[in-house]
Amino acid sequence: MIEQRIYRPSKSPWSSPLHVVPKKNGAFRVCGDYRRLNSFTTPDRYPIPRVKEFTHQLSDKTIFSTIDLN
């Protein structure tokens, strides 16, 4: 895959190891191991709520929305 220029090696401290795993149908799945990278990131201060929580919060609200696609 390196010769085909699909990916290239990296020595960056922010890189994560990739593993190419064959699927049952013969295709390949690229899997990343982001555990080391996750240890350097900080969680969102205000994470996006789950849909169920969000719809519960809006259940007694009236929402007006417009969008201009021009």
From TrEMBL:
InterPro entries xref list: DNA/RNA_pol_sf (IPR043502), Rev_trsase/Diguanyl_cyclase (IPR043128), RNA-dir_DNA_polymerase (IPR053134)
Top-rank lineage group of the source organism: Eukaryota
UniProt-listed GO biological process terms: DNA biosynthetic process
SUPFAM superfamilies: DNA/RNA polymerases (SSF56672)
Name this polypeptide is given: Uncharacterized protein
Provenance organism: Parnassius mnemosyne (clouded apollo)
